[in-house]
Amino acid sequence: MTSTVATRTAADPGQGTRHGDSVAQALLTVIGIGAAAVVYLWWSDTGAIIGAAQWITNGARLCGLLAGYTAPVLVLLMSRIAPLDRTLGTDRLARWHAMGGRYLVGLVATHVTLIIWGYSLTDDSNVVHQTTEIVFHYPDMLKATCGTLLLFGVGAVSARAARSRLRYQTWYHLHLVTYVAIVLVFFHQLSNGDEFLHDQAARVCWYCLYLGAGAVILWFRFALPARDAARHRLRVAEVRTEAPGVVSVYVTGRRLDELAARTRAGQFFRWRFLAPGLAWSANPYSLSAPAADGCLRITVKERGDHSGALAGLRPGTRVLAEGPYGALTADRRSGAKVLLLAGGVGITPLRTLFESLPAAPGELTLVYRAGREQDVLFRDELEAIARARGARLHYLVGPRTEIGEPLQTRTLLALLPDLREHDVYLCGPRGMTDTAREALDTAGVPPRRIHHESFEF
Amino acid sequence: MRRIVLTAGGTAFGVLLLLAAKPHQTGPAAVPAVAAPQGAASGPATGVHTVTGGAVGTPLGPVQLKVTFDGTRITGVTVLEEPDSTPRDEQINAQAVPVLTQEALAAQNANIDAVSGATFTSQGYIGSLQSALDAAK
Questions:
Q1: Can you list the domains of chain A with their CATH numbers?
Q2: Which of B18, B116, B119 is closest, CB to CB, to A43?
């Protein structure tokens, strides 16, 4: 088994990373072409621009059009299209979405400001009067105003500072309000936008863009998960304590072989447990063992309300698992040698990869950092895998006060003199991954060979 | 942070470039085309009567007026047609037309000021008014 898969890897080394990057490039290009088309819509509809008022008003129209285009694109990026998610990585898509979100709020704010300013200049009226005029007397503008205020509200909540004071779930559900905002704002674009009033084709394209985004969302975020739920009927089989504050949840269900077949080692699901207090949230947890033998396992450290409550789950509790998502898989590697670098509970996806990542004996190394002896998870399993596969396994255990910073270039090079030739899969808490990245960087590991997915929002 | 500045700056720059690339003067010979006035009795008429001015084309659409005279005195102006293809046009007309009509009634001729912000409507209004006055002579 190992040798056949290793041959496949040797035949196309590096395909994964480059494939992901080229898909990212292609996607950005398509988005850019769309934006250019939107700009052309304005260009072909606009004649001479005379006087300050028209400069301002046309700037506002451009910003408005771009905002109207950005919104459905952002929704699409977050629609969890499985192949896209697997190729680009959930975290990259989330990063793009977050960046685009700020951009959208900026565009909308500029559009609103410039429209009011431009119209006031044209009519020679004051800003307050003009604002009332626009909100109450232009078609669909009352709806659009409500939508815009909602959007700004979500923007303010999502701003990093405000977010850290909110529970993740609250933030997440508030975020869903943007769907309402986008629908509310949609109509004023068609009923006031010069570009759409006189151009049937543009109107049709706009409807297609929005309805298409809506359909994709419904399909990937609702229809497919619902189908999976009905098909697999997952239930909690057992909850086992692995270490202080860390539990494994074993889940069984029907036709799990199908689920296993489309899951790659290193991927995660969004888990919703239908138990009091848990049903409202779906949290991302990686599988901590390859999906097999009619059983899925996740391993979770008690952190927030959600992860803490998992310890009290009763066997038989219904489970909805949405996924698999994520691109921290074998596809990412670009060479034969692989280092898995785990910190704390970040071992979970790496534990799965350690077992199933194609590698010849001696090519695979797991370095596992933990604060205390009793925090080390899966010790027996890891040692069994290491023996069976001829893989190397190192622990870096102990508090920093006693052993110093364990993740130093020096330490890593001592373990792996040829560190530079490795692909590194990195998973752990934020501080640990930052330190590790720095150490790897100093050791000369190129950033494109460091594979990391962050779930911290 | 650098990314945000770059995208925001890039967008602002791009928008300015696009705006700058557009022409900034009205094209030459923007003489509004005037269709012949309809149903106008030639020669001065007495008593209260109406004359429909010619439809004057503007880049936003034609403007056409119906002017009411009491003898040779202008007593009222009704707009039959005006640019109304966007809500914004309608809004602009709603403000400009009463002003233009007031000016016309005060001046008793078509030699009136355009309303700022409603250049095209004003052009069309003045053109159609003039054609109605010509027809009424």
A1: 13-228 (no CATH), 233-325 (2.40.30.10), 335-452 (3.40.50.80)
A2: B18
Using a CB–CB cut-off of 8 Å, the residues of B that contact A are: 3-4, 7-8, 11, 15-16, 18-19, 22-27, 59, 85-88, 91-92, 95, 116-117, 119
The C-alpha R_g of chain A, in whole angstroms, comes to 26
User: Reading across the β-sheet that carries A364-370, which strands appear in turn?
Assistant: A392-397, A364-370, A338-343, A423-427, A450-452
Is residue B33 classed exposed, middle or buried when 0-12, 13-18 and 19+ CB atoms within 10 A define those classes? exposed
What is the nearest CA distance from A46 to chain B, expressed in angstroms?
A: 8
Say how far apart CA A222 and CA A206 lie, in whole Å: 23
AA identity, residue B28: P
Query: Is the pLDDT at A2 greater than 60, yes or no?
Result: no
CA distance A392 to chain B (A): 40
CA dist A22 and A28 (Å) reads 10
Q: What is the pLDDT of residue A16?
A: 46
Q: Is B23 in Cβ contact with A103 (below 8 Å)?
A: no
Which of the pair, A103 or B58, is modelled with greater confidence? A103
Q: Say what the ipTM of the complex is.
A: 0.78
pLDDT tier, B36 (very low <50, low <70, confident <90, very high otherwise): low
pLDDT in tens, A112-156: 999 999 999 988 889 999 999 999 999 999 999 999 999 999 888
State pLDDT tens for residues A206-238: 999 999 999 999 999 899 999 999 999 999 999
**Model-level pTM?**
0.82
Separation between Cα atoms, residue B99 and residue A18, nearest integer Å: 66
* The predicted structure's pLDDT at residue A281: 82
Note whether A412 and A439 are within 8 A (CB). Answer: yes
Sketch out chain B's domains with CATH numbers. Answer: 30-136 (3.90.1010)
Helix (H) or strand (E) holding B19: helix B2-21
For the sheet with B48-52, list strands across it. B48-52, B64-70, B73-81
Cα→Cα distances A286→A1, A245, A266, A344, A345, Å: 24, 17, 7, 14, 10
pLDDT digits (tens, 9 = 90+) for A26-48: 999 999 999 999 999 999 988 88
Instruction: Look at the block and give the residue holding tokens 């005379």.
Output: A50
* Cβ within 8 Å, pair A50-B91: no
